[in-house]
Specification:
The chain is of the alpha/beta class. It is built from 9 helices and 10 strands. The chain has a domain at 2-88 and 151-226: P-loop containing nucleotide triphosphate hydrolases (Rossmann fold, 3-Layer(aba) Sandwich). A hairpin with a 2-residue loop joins strand 1 (2-11) and strand 2 (14-24). The two termini are 23 Å apart. Keywords: ATP-binding, Nucleotide-binding, Transport.
Length: 240
Amino acid sequence: MLTLENIKYSRNSKEIIKDISVSFEEKKITSIIGSNGVGKSTLAYIIMGLSDYKPNDGKIYLDGTDITNFSITQRARLGISLLWQEPARFEGLSVKNYLSLGGKIKLDDIKEALNLVRLNPNVYMSRFVDKKLSGGERKRVEIASCILLKPKFLIMDEPDSGIDLMSLDMIVDIMKHLKENDTGVIVITHREEIASHSDYSYLICDGRVLKSGVCSDIIDYYRSTCDVCDNVNAPKEQEI
């Protein structure tokens, strides 16, 4: 269980996360839904432990252990991983070597991961993780690396970013694959097509949890309330 209790975070004197308490389970898909600019990615960076995203108040627990002051490296060692919106480039590093994690991963497992992200292993293992790969291709390679890590929790920050609409079903298949292999998936999205496959959902607005519960209920609320809201950063009286 990964738990955030009463998390607050400010930057440049602006309060971005305002007393958020959420929890995530292994072997479950949990979605964090919300419009752009409401604090979703900031929350992801706080969970991952990025150096500039240490909460001003509150606690983060992993299986009962306080990891609030743990570094990103320490959290990674404990099994928390983050799929970035913008994948990195590694000039001179082949896809095969990138995915092998220093020779720790078997070739058959690399091929399986590439097939899961719908990249032909015979074509892509010899290619390089550089500017010659499109943003969508690099995103798929990064997703493959996350699959191979077999994390306890994987934070997927807008996993469809840079990937064409026809591949949304691939994202869903990967989320289900991770769940079936005991990973707790935390997916940050504004897409109903992705969120609808969650076991549980949190709706975020103005740095707060606006509503939480069964995904279908949250999506209905989001569609009826947030889509027509004139100011995504100003929750009305519906806030709970």
